[in-house]
Design goal:
This protein is of the alpha+beta class. It is built from three helices and seven strands. The chain has a five-stranded antiparallel sheet. Strands 2-7 form a two-stranded antiparallel ribbon.
């Protein structure tokens, strides 16, 4: 029988102390576009994308945005920077069916940067059709205490630079 210890598993380590980026990450293009390949296995019996895949594609686009805007992904921000970014809100509206017939382009905008929160607007487009709109809001927290954390200055500067380049996000379309 193996007795659990407080030692981390090989390759896995506890998050370090909260730390910012060494300097703001250079952002050169916005808004960010993340391509998604939709396969047959992503579809339901109606031969369109299975509904639960759509928020997943939106969240993958947001994580890719972190890599492009901050230079780090969620794994690194958690383990190497001691910062968690749990979601406190997700909302997705569907406008047109998604199929494997063409590339799905997911565009990411920052719609709000608060003291300790970040809201993204994501739009999915396929073959010239607007397929979905999503909003995602995360809170920045200390991974050790799970207490709210102000967005660190260099991360904030990178996000603000992205916002300045992205232009005005489109208004949310409600039915």
């Amino acid at each position: 029988m193996t007795v659990p210890t407080s030692e981390p598993r090989p390759g896995i380590h506890a998050p370090g102390p909260v730390r910012d980026l060494d300097e703001p990450h250079p952002v050169t293009a916005a808004p960010f576009l993340h391509p998604v390949t939709v396969g047959w296995g992503d579809c339901d019996p109606a031969q369109i994308a299975y509904t639960s895949n759509i928020p997943g594609w939106g969240l993958r686009a947001v994580e890719a945005w972190y890599r492009a805007c901050l230079g780090i992904d969620w794994y690194q921000i958690n383990l190497d920077h001691g910062i968690g970014t749990p979601f406190v809100n997700l909302a997705f509206d569907f406008h047109s069916p998604i199929t494997p017939r063409g590339a799905l382009d997911v565009v990411v905008w920052v719609s709000r940067l608060g003291r300790s929160s970040l809201t993204h607007l994501v739009h999915g487009h396929q073959s010239g059709r607007h397929c979905f709109t999503g909003t995602t809001t995360c809170a920045f927290v200390d991974t050790h205490t799970l207490e709210s954390l102000a967005v660190p200055p260099n991360m904030r500067a990178s996000i603000e630079r992205y916002q300045a380049l992205q232009g005005e996000p489109p208004a949310l379309r409600r039915r």
